[in-house]
## 1
Amino acid sequence: MYSYILTSCFLDTVLVPLCTWLYLTALIILAITGARLSSQIPHESSNSLSISQSHGSKNTRDVETNELATGGQTHRRAKIHKALSILYYLFLLAQFLMCVLEIVRLSLTHLSIGLLPFTFVVLITAAAVHFTQGLGGKIYGWSYLNLALWIGLTVTNGVKLAEESKEGTGARKGSKYPVADEITDVSVMVGVYAVLTILETVLNGMRTARWPS
């Protein structure tokens, strides 16, 4: 029992929340850096604007022709992007609820929840960053940062799952939160984080390819 408590404290206080702290720290750094860069954009864009205007009429005709030719494909891609985005937020909601379930059941069993509540902060923050497209582009590389977060949480929760499995499914049997139930919950969370990783990758690829959002 002592070894389990020691392992649980380490996982829930150090390992799993580590991704949260790294993500939030990187996000703040990128936000500050992006704010500084954005102050330079008007000066730089004024030069590029005068150059682009000389080709404006020709480019406009080319764009209109391409839009007519690829209108159906663009509309189909837009629908796919919208469907994947909705799925993305649904999985975020599911993960939020799974975290609530884990924390409540740990509390009912009088076990330490460590710093697990900070997972709520990172889930809400990641959802806001994704929804605002990096605060309107002010956070450079935000999609890759979100992707790194989901990968990190998948790995750390996978380690947590492996450590809990060593305790055996019979541990804490008869309590309000048997290890078998916790293993099931963490397994679901690992799966959801993995799906978020895939969705973030696909949506990022669509943005890179300039698919409509």
## 2
Amino acid sequence: MYDRALNFLLFKVVFVGAILEPRWEELLIWTAWFTILGFLRVFSMLCRDRFEFLIVSSNVPTRVHVKLLSMLTVILISTIALFIFCISVFRSMLLLLSFECFTLFLDTIQTLVKYVIHLGDVSHQGPCESRRTVQYYTEFITDTMILVTTLGHYLHIMYLHGISFTLIDAVLFLNIRSVFNNLRKKLSNHQAYRQALIDMEASYPSATEKQLADYDDDCAICRDSMTSAKVLPCGHIFHL
């Protein structure tokens, strides 16, 4: 996490400053702005790492959940406040300065939604099928939006800087290529996931209410109760 935070600050201050060649006053503004956002991003990464630890832990005290949810809420509100401040004060540099606000907002939203879904799973309130679908699409949509926004951010920087075939241009091209490949991989994986669901729907019949009642057991894979399931040729019943 320390390396990620350091890379964030170095990229934003040195790289953006070198590309746009701002005056010292503007460079100080950008440095202060990215320092504040980097501080919030560090805590956002800490919250995500803490959440990933909690989902594999047992008997987590309620106060731990309250603290983590409170921290995520504070980060979310602070990000929105910074975005409003950016619109009000730095309109001429809105696209450059608001990029990190937007991506931080999406990261925090993703962690919050996944956390709420996890708390719902822990409390066993209702079936889990819909929660898993919401979690998947939340992660897919937020990650895709972050990648698209990042790609647009790099292209915007390239537009402002122009193409001069320097080392900075090479680094920028490599970043654009990396983001584009990640976006293509994300969309390709989603397409494969959708095709797998379509094939499963076509290949295996859905279990009737009578079959589920006769089976009267939890899913052998996820160990959760079943309100809908698929029947395999061998007769076993599983969740999608």
